[in-house]
Queue: 2 jobs
Job 1
Amino acid sequence: MSRVVNAMKRNNKKSTFILQLTAMVDMFTIIIVFLLKSYSTSAVNITPQKGLDLPMSSSYTSPVEGVKVVVSKMGIFVQDRQVITFENGKILNRDIASEDSDFISDLFKALNNEAEKARAIAEKNEEYKFDGKIIMQADKELPYGVLKKVMYTASMAGYADLKMATLSME
Amino acid sequence: MAFKRNKIRFKSGSDEESTYDLDLSPMLALMVTLIPIMLLATVFVKVTIIESALPQVVQKAIEEDRNNKNKKISIQLNMKKNKSFYLNISKGKRSRKSIKISSRGGQWDLNRLHTQLVTIKQKYPRTFRIDLVPAESVSYEDIVKVIDEARGTKSEDPKLYIRDKESNKRVETTVMFPDIIFSNVVGG
């Protein structure tokens, strides 16, 4: 064994050595190609969060710009800001208007703010038009009863063009 | 001549190493910078929305159907709590046909629903709208599955045609009912 070490010492006179990076560069090249393939500039971004599992659909239409409403098991989020908190996946009675069982007051306020902002921009900028598009990302296990309330409130706030975000089966 | 000279040099041993190591460190540095940037903008799940881009003739027929205020035919699809479907077809205000599709093994019978919808579409090719009425307890996933079944034909389905009013030509289409309206959202 010591003979081998001595021979190696004799052969390798230099005290520095060159690191073999070829394999690592190969690996990085493969990773970059894979990442480039899945690079996205999509209008809708999903922020992974607890209680949001989108359903799968055979639809292949690319997402469009619109107000992002997330309905997860935790609550309702408008443009990533939580406006309603759920308890056991259900809307609390205090969040529902007493005179209308499908009307969620805080959600209406948040959406109405967004609509007013959009209308104010549309007044100043002729190229921009308020089209009332809403992109709903909802958890697949949520009952239609909850979604119906969200849709109803959204339509009251002027958002009648509903787009449902789903995961592609590809 | 030059070749000869090189040959001599190799033989004499003046140029012992004919191979050399490429300095890959700058390339590695570049990749280490690129990978985090790309990781930030990479999607591992692809999001789509439920809508459809269509050929002109079909698109025109859909627009006509959308703008038609006095619809003669309206199709209503009820999704019940017990996982059965009720398809109601109204022709004007008078006649009304109702088809019940019971659950199969405690699950929605999506295949039978699809077959029924294809039959209805063959009968009424210029109708593109379905009024969906799900019960409050129906899950969002089941609604999306039903929309998928209603939106288009599958490869094993019979071919669907739409006649262009101007040229009187038949155009093949895979589109069935792209307009899904939740008709019980307001006042349901």
Job 2
Amino acid sequence: MIRVGVDLVPVARVQAMADAGDSGPLHLMLTSAEAELSRFATGWDLHGVAGRIAAKEAVFKLLHVADRTLPWQSIEVLKTTGKWPTVRLSEPASTWAAEAGIEAIDVSISHEDQFAVAVAAGAAGFPTDKETFHAEHHLVQR
Amino acid sequence: MPSTTSSNVDAVRNWLLAKHPERESIAPDEDLIAARFVDSLSFVEFVLTIEEASGVEIDREAIDLADFRTLSAIQKKFF
């Protein structure tokens, strides 16, 4: 089963968080490695931050974890040497992915003037019973 | 010890209302997440606001959403 997640982040919301300075939320939402990738010499790369946050949210959505908040520090969106975004999970997200049978996650990010969007995809080795029911229910609809 | 006055949870209420000028009030038992007062992007700021108002440091690895769903629940847990 393929899992997907998508998220859209307005750049204006990132701007508001950046305006809060070092006591604001961005330092809690980005790891140090992500923050290093998300800064220009003059300050935050707002579109880069928005895209990275959207990607984290998209990954969290595909994990299908109920009643938990997004563990910002455990879903990292970094860059490969080819500059493509790549995902690195740590606890608790890595356990959630393992429980879903997801061995790899890929993300794609795009941004325009006011928004950033990200899609995450992963292959789950086994669906939960509930998700199987919904999928079968959908398939038999005519 | 955290304060037990309602004025501190009012600081949380005021923060939420400032983010949502279309609303004039929030009922103590209104579901803040279902009503979209708080979403995943603003949840970190929400937690920081509760920490600042209550003086309680919140363990982000052990968050139970039920403690954050309503102003009543927030007051009971953190104030």
